[in-house]
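ugh finaly. both done.
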Amino acid sequence: MHIVLKIFLGGVAAIVGIASIAAASIWIIGGAKLNQKFTAPDIDIAHSTDPQIIADGERLATLTGCTGCHSERMQGKVMAELPEGSRLVALNIPRVAASLTDGELAKIIRYGVRPDETGVVVMPSQIFFILTDDDLKAILSYIRATPDEGKELPQMRIGLMPRLLFMLD
């Protein structure tokens, strides 16, 4: 009986050790992918205050899905809370945009690349990559015309499952 218990406990220890190494690997490799640097060309573009261009930008933001993730008035929302503790949050765009130039914001939209050259998490930039400069200008104009309504959002948490997905991408 004593030997069976030793074998059982040894097996449990091995499984726990392998699982710990796997989790640490996912955390480290997935985290490295999250912090990966990307280069994207600068975009020389400026928003407009023309009401027609702003209205077109609102239409385009709806058609391309901006308002699906960031909410109808672009104030952001929690997109998902995963059982392992991850929380995916679509940011309050008027608030974020206030600290960015038009070119920086356009680069995030079109290429999914922040000013620090890291990628934006879960941003479907492949949709926006094909937008004309006029369409991009319209979306920028809508964002600039949309006030920050003060909505506070919880912090994004990227846990093990999203890191695994980033690692496999």
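ok and the 2nd:
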Amino acid sequence: NGIDYDPWVPKLLSADQSQPTVLDVGNLVGVAVGGNPHRWYNPQDVQLVLRKIVSDYQALDPADSSYFVKKSLYFNTASLKLYHSAIAAIKSNYSGTPVGASESIFAMLAPALGLDLITPPTFLRAISEGTDVSVADKETIDNQIKNHLIKIYVYNSQNVTPDVQAQLAEAKADHIPYATITETLAPANSTYQAWQTRQLLGIEAALAKAAKG
């Protein structure tokens, strides 16, 4: 992954004398250490990684070049079909909708869906990195929930801190629909496409509920 998300990998590779082909996602998409490492939530980055995997495999095994292209095409058009259609549907029906979130894993998906994520970026990052949240950010989010400035609340169910618990309780009390996402595969034996599609459909359902009032 890179972007300091898995810092043990370079150490492991440095001890490998076989000089393997390495795909560093952070380097590929141009995001340095300190940037948002959760690139699997960026549909554009998913496509970049997919194309790079194909080109790396082709370089390693030129004789099977067409096979890798065929498998990539199938993955993109069949395996990711519902994923792509869910993104398109949300963008088409709810573009511009103001939303709130618990942390930065949603910060790249929201714009890809056409949603207006108005939670302070400093709060999103603090929750993701486990650092202190400012009083000002808490007050801002409390106001956004209390005055229904956000239409739905999206939270990471794998990282429900006391601050996130409080916000979720406020959202429920104020009848603001919510949706869950997770940082890693849920369930653990799921596929990327099934996991992401299920979450997108949950977000779409929350948006539909909010639209109905």
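summary for the 2nd one i guess: The mean pLDDT is 96.
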